[in-house]
Specification:
Number of strands: 5
Structural class: alpha/beta
Distance between the termini: 29 Å
Oligomer: single chain
Shape: globular
Number of helices: 4
Mean pLDDT: 95
Strand order of the largest sheet: 2-1-3-4-5
């Protein structure tokens, strides 16, 4: 008889995205992403962070102040990092991400061929960036779903 309380695919892949988010050095928002192909194989992961070669300790992480003294012109979002980290085609893949993508990431998602986005949180739902992302996803035929956990808690003992 097989075990019955195993985690389902969505929980597994969102769990990988959540674990990836823990690599972020952002002291305000940690975001993780996991890209999965049609065979339920992980093809890439990413988290929000500074571009490769830009030392984290020398880059700004603040949210407010002069634009060039904030993280915003520098940080690569988790979705973009996952897309750039992939060594294979992302056509028809699914993106699991802990935070709803912004408009800039939506462009990269659409251009990469990803056809489905499953997100855990949408805390900027009323922002122009999110509204633009939703519009682009709708026009491009990218399906979007809110992740609905099955009341499962996953514990990792490292």
């Amino acid at each position: 008889m097989k075990r019955e309380n195993y985690i389902h695919w969505d929980a597994y892949f969102m769990g990988i995205a959540m674990l990836s988010a823990q690599r972020s050095k952002d002291n305000h928002t940690q975001v993780g992403a996991c890209i999965v192909n049609q065979d339920k194989k992980i093809v890439s992961v990413g988290y929000n962070g500074m571009p490769s070669g830009c030392p984290d300790d020398e880059m700004p992480w603040e949210r407010e102040g002069d634009f060039l003294q904030t993280k915003y012109p520098f940080v690569c979002h988790a979705e973009l990092n996952a897309i750039l980290n992939s060594a294979t085609s992302l056509k028809n893949c699914t993106l699991y991400v802990t935070l709803f993508p912004c408009n800039e990431c939506a462009k990269a998602i659409i251009q990469s061929g990803i056809r489905k986005v499953i997100f855990a949180e949408n805390k900027y739902a009323d922002s122009p960036q999110t509204i633009a992302a939703e519009q682009m996803f709708r026009l491009a035929g990218v399906s979007v779903e809110t992740y609905s956990p099955a009341n499962q808690q996953i514990t990792l003992n490292l």
